[in-house]
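for the writeup, i need someone to sanity check this before i put it in the appendix. the sequnce is what the collaborator sent (i think, or maybe the updated version? ugh). structure was predicted straight from it, no edits. if anything looks off just tell me and ill rerun, i have time this weekend
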Amino acid sequence: MERLADRVILAWGFKRVALAVLAGAVGVLALPPFGFFAAMFVSFTLLVWLIDGSAAAPESGLIGRLWPSFTVGWLFGFGYFVAGLWWLGHALMIDAEAFAWALPLAILGLPAVLAIFYGIAAALARTMWSDGMGRIAALAASFGLLEWLRSVLFTGFPWNAIGYGMTPVPLMMQSAHVIGIMGITSLSVVIFAAPALLGTRQGAKLGLSLAALLFAAHIGYGAYILYGPQPAPASDSPSPVIRLVQPMIEQTAKMDSDADRAAIFEKHLKLSVESPKDGGRKPDIIVWPETSIPFILTDNQDALSRIADTLDDNQILIAGAVRVEDMGPGNPPRYYNSIYVIDGRGQIAGAADKVHLVPFGEYVPFENILDDFGIQNVVEMPGGFSPAATRQLLSLPTGIKFYPLVCYEIIFPDEMTGDLGAANAILNVTNDAWFGATPGPYQHFQQARLRAVETGLPLIRNGNSGISAIVNARGEVIAGLGLNETGFVDATIERFDAQRDPGYPRQTYFRLIEILLFAIALVSRFGLVFKQN
């Protein structure tokens, strides 16, 4: 290990660049659909050694001294995000004639921007760099802070935070309920980077012992939650049967003629009325995916009548649709990406609008300026979508309340606020057909499962092309449909009214972890300086 560490530390030029990019790219193997979390040990061990070798001329100023470390971190991040997000380009090729020109921006440009966060993390860690365990704590604290900033700055994009590499299966997800995915991210870097200590020997016993203890606690807590005593239901009343309809509509078909839209609508209705498999109960709640109703529902009374004819009187349909709001004479209408609740009589009983829109997908930032350059939304909508001012619970006529999240809203841990404690489950509707048979839908599904574990609430997730599933509060899939399958699945939510506490102080524990890691890094750094002086 020492010989290997020396070779990485002393690497220079193209070899150093290639090692940094490769280190980041290898880490993606820890993410879905692979789930090989051990790959992160390779990534962060190499990253520590590369930062060890990021020396600058003694006469350089602060920026000059930190620039080599920033460059290593940026290259690491570039490799990680290109390998983990290349599939975003698939969405642009749905309408290649209009958007193929933006392919390099999606595949290389966005990773280049996101990699800046990792570059800053490496540079920040370098300011506290020391021998032994101190530098591992510095790197972990810096990555935790910068991953959190990535989730909130410039509308936020926390996709594939490092902590997801430590949560490939439910056994390794349960810690998220206590410290959240950001807390897992910070402590994961401690674990993943600890083998680097074997290459320099200093602090190896302490660092590896601490990493082993953290990993054992992570696994042990997961085993206790999954296999220990389970809470009893709060009532004996049966949980409602929920049907997830996964129609697998090609994205190009959703953008075509009115005849195609009518066929899409009928396909949803047909799957909704099929007899339950194995003689089960009829569904009480039927869920369709995001924008599954391919026209303005309130302008189409015939569609509401068809829904009424299809549903039994006591059945409820939850469907994604575009909602339009008339703003009065002389003003353009506003469009919302919404979820409707429709009762058995074909009446709209409730609605919830998307709050966190996708930049350049559902709206264009600085539209007045960028429009002159021909930059427009990927989703065709006059003026783009408008965001809802607040998130409201989706209340069903039966009294059940869902916490509604449309598409990628579910990747944001900080979105899980407000009336979350009053909800019976999280409802997430999405349309991942934009991304085809790529890692994207698998990554999206894993992040959705983590929100269920974090909040202690069951998850009802329906995607047009998958992955659709009913997930319990421990992140276990009760029933579901795989990617690009067509059909439906009926299931009840286990312990529907006996979830884990959704108000756990995850943010507080994350802050405490960060403070502790920064304290260890600073004590190691300045303690070493004082000893030398």
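Residues 506-532 form the longest helix (27 residues). The chain is about 45% helix and 15% strand.
thx in advance!!
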